[in-house]
Amino acid sequence: MKGASLAHIVLVIAALAAVPLLTASNVVLNFLVVALLVALVGQGWNVLAGYGGQYSFGHAAFFGTGAYVTAILQMRYGVNAWIAFTLGIAGGALVGAAIGALAFRSGLRGSYFALVTLAFAEVLRILASVAPVTGAGVGILIALDLRPQAFQFQGRVPFYWIVLTLVAVSLLIVRLIEQSRFGAWLVAVRENEDAARAVGVDTARVKLAAMTISAAITAAGGGFYAQYFLFIDSGIAYGPWISIAALLAPIVGGIGTVFGPLLGALVVKTLGEIAKLVTGDAPGLDLVVYGGVLILVVAFAPQGIAGLLTSLRLRFARLRSSPPERAHG
Amino acid sequence: MAEPLLCLQHVCKRCGGLLAVDHVSLAVEVGRITALIGPNGAGKTTLFSIISGFLAPSEGRIFHRGTDITGMPPHLLARRGIARTFQIMQPFAGLTVHENIAIGAHLSRRSRAEALDAAADVASKVGLGQVLERPAASLTVAARKRLELARAVATNPELLLLDEVLAGLNPGEVAAMMPIIRHLAGRGITIVMIEHVMQAVISLAEHVFVLAEGRIITQGAPQEVVGNARVVEAYLGHGAAARLAAAGGTHV
Ligand SMILES: Nc1ncnc2c1ncn2[C@@H]1O[C@H](COP(=O)(O)OP(=O)(O)OP(=O)(O)O)[C@@H](O)[C@H]1O
Ligand SMILES: [Mg+2]
0.90 cut: is pTM over it? Predict the structure, then answer.
C-alpha cells in the first residue's frame, strides 16, 4: 500500500507538536511556522497538480485572496478575526471555483492552464496594487490587538500550534481524498482524460472540485500569513513568490503524495536558511537556491524525496528477502 | 419485435472536406454480438466515437432504448450503460492494473474497497488476475488489450463497444480472448465489435455491418457477408471479386 496511513499522520504531527516543549528559541519556532505555512500552501497546490495533474503557476491568487479577505474584513468592516479568517478561506475557494470554471469550461490543459492561472494571479496583484479597499500601493496593516479572540498572540508558540493544526487538517483532507472515489477519479483525470470520460468520470466537474478544495487550503495559508505578520501588500499577497513556494515544496517532497509538501517545505526552507547563512542574505539568492533545487529534483528524483524514500525502501526489502549469493560453483 | 438497444439514423461526420461517416443508419439488437467490419479508414472508429459521445455527429440522430442521446457527453453515456474500448489503447499509465480497472468499477460503486474488489473480480475473468499490482505501462500489448476490455466491463455496461481488441494479438492470444468475449455476451451484455480478424467475426458475431468509405454497404449474417462481392471489393479493390472467382475456378 503506497498511501499514508492515519498512524503516520498522527505520528508526524505528534513529533512536530513536541518541538515547542523542547525549545523556546524564537528562531527555531519562526523557521518552523514559516515552513509549515509553506507546507500548507503547497498542500493546496498538491491537490490540484499532484493528484489532478493540473499544474497551476498562480496559486498566489488564492493565497492573496485569503490574506486580503482576512485583513480587509477586520480593518474595514470590524469583523472578528476568526470569522474573517474563515471567510478568507471561503473567498479563496470562490476565486478557485471561478477561475476553474472559466479555464476548464474552455478546455484549457497543460501549459495553457498554467499560463492562465499565472495571468489571473497577476491581474489580481495589479488590481490589489491600485484599489483603495486593499490599501493600494501601501498595503494593509492589521492593528495590534494581542488577544486570542483577535487571532493575535504574545509569543510564537500559539501560532505554531495553529499552523500545525491547519497542516494536520490538510494532511487528513488529502488522505481522505486518496481513499475516496473522488480521489480515484481525480487521479484518473491526471492519467488520461479520455479514458476517464469513457468510464463515466465528469472530468470538468472533478477538476473544478479539486481546484476549489486546492484554493481553500492555500487561502487558509494566506489568512494565517496576514495574522502572523499583521501586514500584507499586493506583492506579498498576490506575488509570484508564493506561487513558486506553493509548487516547489510538493515537487521537492514528492507530488501526489500526502507528505510531499510538508517534507519539501522543510527541506526547501532549510536549504534557504543555509544559503542565507553562507552568503549573508544577498537579495534574490533564495530564488537561485530554489531554481537549483528544482533542477536537481527534476533531473535526479522526479518523484521527489518521497519517491526516493520509496525506491530505497523497496531496494532494502529486496536485499533482505533475497539471501546473499554464495560464490561457489 | 423488441425495440433495438441502439439505433442510428442518417448519422454523418464531416472531417474537413471528407465525409468520414456518410448517412449511416443501423440498429443493434439487444443481447447479441454485432460486428462492424470494413477496410482501414472506413470510418469505424469515428462511428464508435460518435456513439460514445466523444465526437458530435454533423447530422443524424442516435437513440438508446428509444431515447435521443445525440450530443450527450461521454460520461453520461457511460452512466447510461454504454462502454467503449479504444483502438489506440488508453490506459491510466501510471496506475496499476488493479487501480485501472477499479476506476471503471467506481462508476456504480462509491466505496473504494468495493470498487477494488469488483476490479479484482473482473481482472480474474479476463485473465489479468496474476498481474493486478503491475503498472499498466509495463504490460504487453495482449495484456493491455485485456485491460481496455476489463476497465470497460467493470462499469457494468449493457452495451459494450469493442474497437479491435483482437488486433495485434498472435493466433494463440486471439484464441484465448474469444471465449472471454463470448462469456461477456453470455452474461447479457450486448456487444458491438470492430474487428479485422475475420475468423473471430465469423465465429462470434450473429450480425455484421460492413462499412466502406463511411457508408454501410451491406449487412447480414457473417457467412453471407464475407462472401458478398461488394465486401470483397471494398477490401481488395475494384474487380477483385471477379479475379478471385476466376482464380478459384482454375484451382479448385
Ligand atoms: N479528427 C479527424 N480529422 C480528420 N480526418 C479524420 C479524423 N478522424 C478520422 N478521420 C478520417 O476519417 C476516416 C475514418 O477514420 P477511422 O479512424 O474512423 O477509420 P477506421 O475504420 O477506424 O480505420 P482502421 O481500421 O484503420 O482503424 C479516415 O479517412 C481518417 O483519416
Ligand atoms: Mg479504427
Answer: yes
CATH of the domain at A192: 1.10.3470
- Distance (angstroms) between ligand 2 centre and the Cα of B195 equals 9
Flag whether A126 is in a domain. yes
CA B230 to ligand 2 center in whole angstroms: 20
**Residue A329 falls inside a structural domain:** no
Chain B residue nearest residue A183, CA to CA:
B112
Q: Do B54 and A199 touch (CB under 8 A)?
A: no
Half-sphere exposure in the Cβ direction for A62 (13 Å, CA): 36
Fill in the amino acid letter for A248. L
Name every chain A residue with its beta carbon within 8 A of the beta carbon of B84.
198
CB within 8 Å of A52: residues ≥ 6 apart? A186, A187, A189, A190, A206, A207, A210, A211, A214
d(CA B121, nearest CA chain A) in Å: 17
Residue that wins the pLDDT comparison between A304 and B247: A304
Q: Which three cell numbers stand for residue A27?
A: 528562531
Query: What would the DSSP string read from start to end of A117-143?
Result: HHHHHHHHHHHHTT-GGGTTTT-EEPP
* Minimal Cβ distance to A199: which of B103, B110, B112: B103
Report residue A12: phi and psi, to 5°.
-65, -45
Q: Which are the contacts of B52, defined by CB distance < 8 A and separation ≥ 6?
A: A198, B74, B77, B78, B82, B84, B161
Question: Into how many domains does chain A fold?
Answer: 1
Write out the residue range of the structural domain in which residue A141 sits: 6-321
Residue to test with chain A: of B48, B75, B111, B161, most A Cβ within 10 A? B75
The bound ligand whose nearest atom lies closest to the alpha carbon of B21 is 1
What ipTM score was computed for the predicted complex, to two decimals? 0.91
Instruction: Determine, yes or no, domain membership for A279.
Output: yes
Task: Note the pLDDT tens digit of each residue in B215-227.
Answer: 999 999 998 888 8
Residue A257 exposed, middle or buried by CB count within 10 Å (0-12, 13-18, 19+): buried
pLDDT in tens, A161-214: 999 999 999 999 999 999 999 999 999 999 999 999 999 999 999 999 999 999
CB-CB: which of B78, B86, B112 is closest to A200?
A: B78
A302–chain B nearest CA distance, Å: 13
